[in-house]
């Protein structure tokens, strides 16, 4: 009802297109979403394969043709979105509106400027739209829980990251002073790069200490990385547990008799006074 | 009782074989399981050693002989399973039925086609049967708890993996644009491969950025990998805690009135019927 | 009030400077803190860039000039801190007092001794002052929670680190005996260095086993590293959960009789005096 | 009392030595423990430095002398332990008794056989004795909690390790079939070694896929390693939380009036009926 009232400024054919493109509850909307998803994935794969020199030499013409087909499809989608919405400006200036435009622009620009095709990979961001289909199922709740937990711990993660960056700067500088430049510690920024590689336990090995003193300090850095790695895990896990354990066990119902709270979801009687909930 | 009724279409000798092969509670069944387990492990070790060029040259004949001995043992086991079961089709088409067939087929095929022997490693999957022995002990509960926790968090892990893949695609493409091909970033798929190596903190170092800009972005990717690594740990840990802690929060008392269970430790009244506990 | 009484031995102009430099609640104090923060970060970036040989050749004179400008700024700040505080000795001998001195000394010493400029990186430690600004917002609580959790688990982490070091020594020595020196295991300290690299899952690859026996032992070490890595995470996470969950288990109600706090959510009577809540 | 009765078969001078060597509560015992600890650490450092070729050439004689001094000290300690204990056999055959013997034997054997000196590193195990000093403080409780948690989750960790080994075998074999031997996948055992390196996120890079197909599979393995790494962390963390949260919050006291349990450690009155505890 309120939905129909809100959309009253749309003509019936616009409303139909709107329903197919923006909604995901009807069969047509679901089909459209899945089709679009496949088109996005395939177009991204094409962009990827195009970047492989040996494949590009062989199938250059096929890639060029497919690219244009997808660009036309996405252009039609973009136009359909604009004409079927009440306030086109709001869509055009939204995150997805800009992404949608950026995903078709590079091909057109490629007619005039050579080299801009690599921008087409912005389409990768369109993959985020995949979550719209996931909305159909119970995924919404899950991804919301994930997002909420990370959001709730963002302050602590920020404090943690600042501490890690300060630590990396100090450790990198110490290694720059201690290690020879032959081992790869040619400047402080490069040494900080090494410190981050080591603290995060990535460990490429492109820069590695070769002097005994450097290796001794590196060992301490690695063992510190142990404890440090535990911190973000602890932050996010404790947040997850809070979100995960609460809503599923405890009901929000309060007893009518003794107004006690904290009853289980499946409780029929108050566990304190015995009255029916 | 119900068990005997179910198996009534089996002859006594079939029932005996069935008990030895399929059950693990009797002494004969346990012995058979352990014997089969050893045979599987030894045959897998033979397949492994056969793949080492220097060993294969030296002991080729011994390997060939042992391989045939195990193939005959596993063939007899396969036949015994088929003839001792009520509905052979159900076994033949089951996961383990197919694995059992695939683990003997390659040796026979090897008589006709050269090179198919490497398929014998499918026997590795047979190692999964090891869990059947573990069933005997209290391992069932443990592995079930493990499995349940992972199963319960599969939606969230899927959402997480999709996010990681999207992120890897975007980061890989950025690095492809920024880094020179000399450093190993020769195509977008290879750059995505690098992004996955870095985000998962594996860090082979076969592809590593060499320009300052590339190293700067790589540092950001590594620090992001920190926080990202914490997410699956958080998901699974919070699930484990739920499964692990629940029995301790829930009392073992059952209601005298309605004999329902699962009351809180501090409950005074039954939460289902209201009777005092 | 109590604040004014405490500072009564300061002259008005000293009090004003004190408020700007040491407090972060007023607009002037906030502006000063942000300005100082920017100066610290820029001066650290200059020190970093100076260490890059190609940049130092090009912009040596600019770096030298900027360095002197920042040194004069930090000298003025140091003098202002000393004259605006009641007990200058307490500041001079405090952690930040020493850091502040060390961050200006190297430039002056550089006039007499060549090579001491690398000490200027001590300024990195000054970055820790960033947390003073963060104090303004709600970050205090967050960083305090983080610190408390790590502090509370320091005994267990120490025990854990001692166990890891003992293990690394044993594993390193075994590998030194097993592996050839060609693979990089030239001495026991180097082998211990390898063991730490492997146990912490950093894995540079500069030292890696090449014999089958060495690779077999390395595999066991890696799988052990799995379980070991889980221990500090478990310690810190369980501590975080305790700190994070407590306020939710504890009611905010205070007893009407004895006004004590910290009662459980489901408590009916005060646990200290027995009065009904 | 019961202690004195137990030791009655020891002469006074034996009891005195026993107290110094085996107990850690008296001043003499504490001093002896710390002295022994320092001797162990220094002797281990000597063994380490002796293995560095350049140092051994220079200081060979000093190392040889120090080694003999420590061997005599540890021999005296070993003899003192035997003569001051009621049942010497029990000590000689215990874990530490064997370690103590093994830590002095290599030097004596070195007089007859050349090359046995490397066995001296068994002294590293003696470092475990460090925990005896830690016993003095509150570390006992901590290390016991750590040990209990790991012990309680040993079944689940075993199941997990078996699953990881099965998975590594399968993944290693697939990579052996897919990848060329040029990349280092020369045999199945080596490929399994690679799979373990990758799943544990160590990532040496000595063996790394070079074909697109191999890199694709490797990417999947790495992402699987993500989720797998979370399992042991989850197991141990959930165990820690159980041990960590329980004893410190909940007292074992039960109310005399209503015999309710689960009161806080600092509770004076029953939270359910208000009676004094």
Automatic annotation (TrEMBL), chains A, B, C, D:
Record-linked Gene3D superfamilies: 1.10.287.70, Voltage-gated potassium channels. Chain C
Sorted UniProt keywords: Ion channel, Ion transport, Membrane, Potassium, Potassium channel, Potassium transport, Transmembrane, Transmembrane helix, Transport, Voltage-gated channel
Residue ranges crossing the lipid bilayer per the database entry: 34-56, 62-80, 92-114, 157-178, 184-204, 216-236
Cell compartments where the protein resides: Membrane
GO biological processes: action potential
InterPro entries: Ion_trans_dom (IPR005821), VG_K_chnl (IPR028325), Volt_channel_dom_sf (IPR027359)
A cellular-component GO term for this protein: voltage-gated potassium channel complex
Keyword Protease among UniProt keywords: no
Protein name per UniProt: Ion transporter
GO molecular function: voltage-gated potassium channel activity
Topology versus the membrane: Multi-pass membrane protein
Record domain Ion transport: where: 30-245
């Amino acid at each position: 009802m309120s939905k129909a009232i809100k959309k009253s400024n749309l003509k019936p054919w616009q409303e139909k297109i709107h329903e197919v493109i923006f909604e995901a509850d009807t069969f047509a909307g679901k089909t459209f979403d899945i089709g679009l998803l496949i088109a996005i994935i395939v177009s991204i794969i094409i962009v990827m394969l195009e970047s492989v020199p040996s494949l590009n030499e062989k199938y250059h013409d096929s890639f060029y043709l497919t690219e244009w087909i997808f660009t036309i499809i996405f252009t039609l989608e973009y136009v359909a979105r604009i004409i079927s919405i009440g306030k086109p400006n709001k869509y055009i200036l939204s995150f997805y509106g800009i992404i949608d435009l950026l995903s078709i622009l590079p091909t057109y620009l490629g007619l005039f400027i050579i080299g801009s095709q690599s921008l087409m990979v912005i389409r990768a961001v369109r993959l985020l739209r995949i979550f719209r289909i996931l909305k159909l199922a119970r995924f919404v709740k899950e991804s919301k829980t994930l997002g909420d937990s990370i959001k709730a711990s963002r302050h602590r993660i920020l404090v943690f990251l600042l501490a890690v960056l300060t630590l990396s700067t100090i450790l990198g500088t110490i290694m720059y002073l201690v290690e020879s430049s032959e081992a790869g510690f040619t400047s402080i920024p490069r040494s900080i790069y090494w410190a981050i590689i080591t603290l995060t336990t990535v460990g490429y090995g492109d820069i590695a200490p070769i002097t005994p003193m450097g290796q001794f300090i590196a060992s301490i850095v690695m063992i510190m990385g142990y404890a440090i790695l535990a911190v973000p895990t602890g932050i996010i896990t404790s947040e997850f547990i809070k979100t995960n354990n609460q809503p599923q066990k405890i009901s929000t119902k309060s007893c009518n008799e003794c107004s006690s709270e904290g009853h289980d979801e499946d409780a029929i009687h108050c566990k304190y006074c015995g009255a029916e909930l």
